[in-house]
Amino acid sequence: MKIITIFLSLFLCLFGCGQKREATSWFTDNGKVKVLSTIAMIDDLVKGIGQDRVDSLSLIVGEIDPHSYELVKGDDEKIANAKIVICVGLGLEHGASLRYQMQKHPGGIFLGDEIQKKVPEKILKVEGETDPHVWMDISLWVNGIDAIVDALVKVDSANAPFYVRNGKRLREEMLAAHLQLQREMLEVSEEKRYLVTSHDAFHYFTRAYLAQGEDWEVRCAAPEGLAPEGQLSTQDIKRVVDHLSQYKIGVVFPESNVSRDALKKIVSCCGHPVRCSEYPLYGDSMGTQNYLEMIRHNVHVLKEEWTR
What we know:
- The chain is built from 12 helices and 10 strands.
- It is of the alpha/beta class.
- Helix 2 packs across helix 7 (145-155), helix 2 crosses helix 8 and helix 10 (234-246) packs across helix 11.
- The longest helix has 26 residues, at 160-185.
């Protein structure tokens, strides 16, 4: 795992430099379709479908929280230069300035809303609020491919067969990865597959990869809600401590872009041995070279921690 840590640190450094070069070249008029995505998980789908026929860029990069993101200098120009702008929607990007720009852009797509239209029964609610973290289940995220293909075909009909073909290939690749990761995760004994993270970003992941049947809701818990705002009450801490005790959970998992303070406090309050994993999971930030590697990373970290 030390090798993994070194690799990820090097990758994040190189990724940041690459993003700067990509953002600069993105303004060049090269005949390609300009597509701006709010988060890297969308951008990766766009790259898989559009390949060399598109210039794609992610607006929110690195470990920045997409829930509360507000536009910074240069973002207006990126949005104005884009032919297509894609966000998750479903309440994820609730920063007022970003939401306003998304709503008024003529090429704006709310990908989560499009997924909800296709499979409304698959969309989760947490305490009455729609859970926007739909990318955490690969088999659900593939339902956004058609909306991206349709948008590209609309503005670049000459390459329609290319986009359709790539969309089909990407869907097959993603669904194969989904089934493989399901098999890997279910190799872990049932009593170990209880996930406690920093905030409520892992409900879809839990339902897809940790549960067999109707018990998925008891298999995930977090001190913070759908958006990590850092405002915890003693009731929040007690709730998670009680959950850890009830299910005899011995390890909790931080997320890469959320403070570990809450989990450390929870661990210190437990009456039985509980440790905080050294290796973070990726929820709101991709943190890896591509989307599928993000989900694989989460599966492999969980599997290693639960079987040690």
